[in-house]
Write the structure tokens for this entry.
Amino acid sequence: MLLVDGKIAEGAAATAYGWVQSIREQKTITFVILMENREPLQLVIKDKRLARKVKVHASIMVKGRVAMTERAPRGYEIHVEEISVLNKPRKIPPFDIMAKEEPSIDVRLDYRPVDLRRPSSMAVFKIRARALQLFREYLVNNGFIEVNTPKIIATASEGGSALFPVMYYDRQAFLAQSPQLYKEELTMAFERVFEIGPIFRAEQSRTMKHLSEATSLDVEAAFLSNEEIMDLIEGMVKHVIKGLNSEPQLFAALKAKPPALPERFPRFTYSEIIEKLKGLGEDIAFGDDLTQKSLEEFGNMAGGFYFITEWPAKLKPFYIMPKENGLTSSFDLMYMGLELASGGQRIHDPVMLRKSIKEHGLPVSSFKFHITPYYYGMPPHGGFGLGVDRFIMVLTDRKNIREVVLYPRDLRRLVP
Amino acid sequence: MLLVDGKIAEGAAATAYGWVQSIREQKTITFVILMENREPLQLVIKDKRLARKVKVHASIMVKGRVAMTERAPRGYEIHVEEISVLNKPRKIPPFDIMAKEEPSIDVRLDYRPVDLRRPSSMAVFKIRARALQLFREYLVNNGFIEVNTPKIIATASEGGSALFPVMYYDRQAFLAQSPQLYKEELTMAFERVFEIGPIFRAEQSRTMKHLSEATSLDVEAAFLSNEEIMDLIEGMVKHVIKGLNSEPQLFAALKAKPPALPERFPRFTYSEIIEKLKGLGEDIAFGDDLTQKSLEEFGNMAGGFYFITEWPAKLKPFYIMPKENGLTSSFDLMYMGLELASGGQRIHDPVMLRKSIKEHGLPVSSFKFHITPYYYGMPPHGGFGLGVDRFIMVLTDRKNIREVVLYPRDLRRLVP
């Protein structure tokens, strides 16, 4: 917090609150970088006795005068006349927040609030927050309304595996793997909806790309074709990346920049990719799921962002609209072999929906409440779910999804 | 979805997608209100054979020409030349969406997607989405960064009762009752944070004001005094209500308007209220919690928005900063006897925090990961949690919290 008497100008009286990121001693002067609401503020202390009160990590309040200068990060610095230490560090920090070398991810997560004082960690979460603003901006500008759907559910929306059971009073319930069924139902009245919220999957392995609790951006719209939904997500991704490109200072501490944007994201059918992989000598046939290895092999050829379209019905959930030849109106949005989003057109006919649930081996009775509204003129609709955390990995060029989630949850980690 | 060739002007070719809200037959003309992305669009059908294709609730696509006219809700209508029925209702709707009389809340919730086609239901969720935008706008403009904290946690943040247990792989975990501990920790690096997300409480009774799953707006800021935090929340509430007041059309279908704003929200101490209630003959003493009956009795006197400040320590959780005389730097924001938000200054000294956890009868070992960062210069901080659903009840003048949540969860209701 920075309070200045009047405007920021030479000699103005200022009070600044923040935490000490670094201290640089010169013969007669001490320079301090105070982090004031996530931005560096340079303090100049000319009194050595006063300077001795300042320690890295301490939360302090200083009073002084503004001095305009090009050498300070903000174009001005504070010449300090008075210092109050509000809370000092009581232990030796687990790592040096300004060191070039990065501590291990596990140490960083054990001391997450301290880790977030490292410039690159803080940058990741500033970019994340800004990206979420840009997502919302794009969707609201395109007529979408934000909704909140329940996270405690009675029935698995996608079929059943990988659910966390919850003891709900005297009943068993589950944590929602996605807002899929709710967002579809809501297109009936609202036409265009989106939700940004937590989703839960009991992942049975520990990878760099999966967490037990993730943030999902779910979008659903009535009346759009599969191609129009791809255009929508492509437009959204471009909006976010262009917005971030206009704020390069956000990326300074990361030595990274947002990925390059092609004129148009290439669209490959599932079948094309199978043929391509066969041609490369892979032992793969139509109907096989694309393994991580296959996705990466193709991803390295495709580069950057691209779509995989027209997946076989048996590889997609019950609500996806079938096409001829056992294919579906569906797509995955990929970045270099990493799946970022999955979507497509949905079934809107109640009879077809009921049949598809059966064919996917699911109990129709569990989906009674979901099928019910479809009898009252459910519009044709489609949409997608985008893994926000994975998208932030791509934006910030991080290799481990744990770096872009404040307090990640996995098979082993439940604290802090 | 509405697609117009060029600008909306007399004679322009138009294609509109939407669902049919109402049909009004005149001798030779049929007027249809098509809900197109949550807004009414008037269709004029002069061909009776064509008009017969249109049924209430059907999702349709029409082609025609724009006609500018004052009598239509948008200042223009579409003269229809072609109609495609995309999905027709297959059953008789459970209630008439345009009826004056409202169906019971349980029927409405059983058919929620259909209920949301009722103008007053739709209005509630448009206001809710707009209010959340205005919350975010205010907080971002005041230097706050939005964060996402985990909903699966190892330890109760507030002490233990009313938690939903989750089977987390082979361990027991819980659903978070609030992001309290995480948001406090995050002030250490980020200074000002907020989160809008789900919270979970196993409420053992069914009331008009409680749900098992609710949406919470959690705000936390370093370096603010208790009074400054009250100023912040007051400023935020005023921002949201002023923003909504500038869009009266949002409230048209509700026959309600946002509550009046006093110049300044009155601030009453807990002790003042106890004295006042004693004076009214209530059997109450310092140290007693304020029952719903007491809150309402005082609320009716106070009217509108007000604060209750300086609660006794034993009525507040362990993290609240104590003051002299067993009081605390704390407040509740009330509206006419309804608690909307609770907040205050927090303990930032690790030794005092550990002591307070013990004094509240909680196991220090369970809070080890939370106390750890406090040893590295945690700033003085404070904040509040605001019940978003309750706030929307006040904004929209609804008496049952189930009306302002899309798919509410309570002791009895887990579907849809």
Notes: The first strand of chain B starts at residue 2 and ends at 4.
